[in-house]
Amino acid sequence: MPKIKTHKGAAKRFKRSGSGKIRRFKAFSNHLFLTKSGKRKRRLRKGSLVDSTNLKRVNRLLAK
Fold first, then answer.
1. Rounded to an integer, what distance in angstroms lies between the CA atom of residue 32 and that of residue 7?
2. Would you call 42 helix, strand, or coil by DSSP?
3. What angle do CA 3, 16, 8 make, to 5 degrees?
4. Which residues pair with 6 in a beta bridge?
5. CA-CA distance, 9 to 57, in Å (whole number)?
6. What is the pLDDT of residues 33-63, one digit of tens each?
7. How far apart are CA 41 and CA 24, in angstroms?
8. What is the rounded CA–CA span in Å between residue 60 and residue 64?
């Protein structure tokens, strides 16, 4: 079987933490900021972890 290549689009969007968890960034934080409250924009700045239901799929895309 050939090796699985890293999905370059996923590699730019996800980062692996020191403990092996996968970090991601929040969606809806690129434009149309006038309609969003300051509290919502602050929450969107912070990253979060990939949910356990998607972990297997993202690990396969990162192929590590």
1. 29
2. helix
3. 50
4. none
5. 14
6. 999 999 999 999 999 999 999 999 999 999 8
7. 16
8. 8
